[in-house]
Amino acid sequence: KKKKQAYATHLLADARGILKIPSTLSFRQASGIYLTYPTSYAALVVRANTQPGETVLVHAGAGGVGLAAIQIAKQLGATVIATASSPEKLKVMQENGADHVINYAADDYVKRIMDLTQRRGVDVVFDPVGEIEQSLKVAAWNARLVVVGFAKFPPGGSEKVATNRILLKNVAVMGVFWGNYRIHEPATVVKVWTQLLQWFEAKQLSPVVFPRSFVGLESTLDALTCLGSRESYGKVVVDTQAVAKL
Questions:
Q1: At what angle do helices 64-75 and 87-95 cross, to 10 degrees?
Q2: pLDDT tens digit sequence for 56-84
Q3: Contact 174, 32 (CB under 8 A)
Q4: What's the half-sphere exposure (Cβ side, CA atoms, 13 Å) at 205?
Q5: pLDDT tens digits, one per residue of 164-181
Q6: How remote is the C-alpha of 81 from its chain's centroid?
Q7: Residue 56 and residue 65: Cα distance in Å, rounded?
Q8: Do the Cβ atoms of 147 and 153 come closer than 8 Å?
Q9: What is the mean pLDDT of the chain?
Q10: Are strands 214-215 and 55-58 parallel, antiparallel or unpaired?
Q11: Is the pLDDT of residue 246 over 50?
Q12: 3-state secondary structure the chain
């Protein structure tokens, strides 16, 4: 039976899925963009069709996809409201372009958002956490809410949503599964990466790497523990040690 390996110093990859690292990025930055940035772009552009002047709510804005979503939303000309759970993460979100930041652990984010939008609500919700039910309370008329993940639920868990608000606010709730675009919409993959690479080369997007150092595969457990503790932000990167040539 073929074994599935999660971490290794070397791997074989399909050449069709290989992309040249943008000249503006380090290897450490580039190691964290392959899923985060296209997922966020697909959510905000391909699915939600975010327009200039709209307001985008980004949940878990200090995570890998969250920071990518903030940066991309700003490139699209949107106003960004982002949530996170600590003062340090709020600062990181502001540094990456968020117009308004909310500590959901200390504040009633529904009230804050409605105050910030003069009771209108937000046009787009980017949700990698499992906050669609609550987010429907701050959704504007014709809003689009994108399900990116269910981070606050145990493996296999998901959120139950009351559909009456979907109808009454005339909103759309949709999912984004970037991993399957290469199967169902390969042309979209090319379009997404073409735009992202242009933005990277123009230094309009800047991947954030968590500053704590993890060196060698033996440090992977520490890196995962750091990730699980929710102290990290951006992408947690494990640097592999030098190994003999194959």
A1: 30
A2: 999 999 999 999 999 999 999 999 999 99
A3: no
A4: 31
A5: 999 999 999 999 999 999
A6: 14
A7: 14
A8: no
A9: 93
A10: unpaired
A11: no
A12: CCCCCCCCCCCCCCHHHCCCCCCCCCHHHHCCCCCHHHHHHHHHHHHCCCCCCCEEEECCCCEHHHHHHHHHHHHCCCEEEEEECCHHHHHHHHHCCCCEEEECCCCCHHHHHHHHCCCCCEEEEEECCCCHHHHHHHEEEEEEEEECCCCCCCCCCCCCCCCHHHHHCCCEEEECCHHHHHHHCHHHHHHHHHHHHHHHHCCCCCCCECCCCEECHHHHHHHHHHHHCCCCCEECCEECCCCCCC
Token duo for residue 197: 């690479």
Given a contact cutoff of 8 angstroms between Cβ atoms, the answer to whether 44 and 50 are in contact is yes
Overall pTM surpassing 0.85 (yes/no)? yes
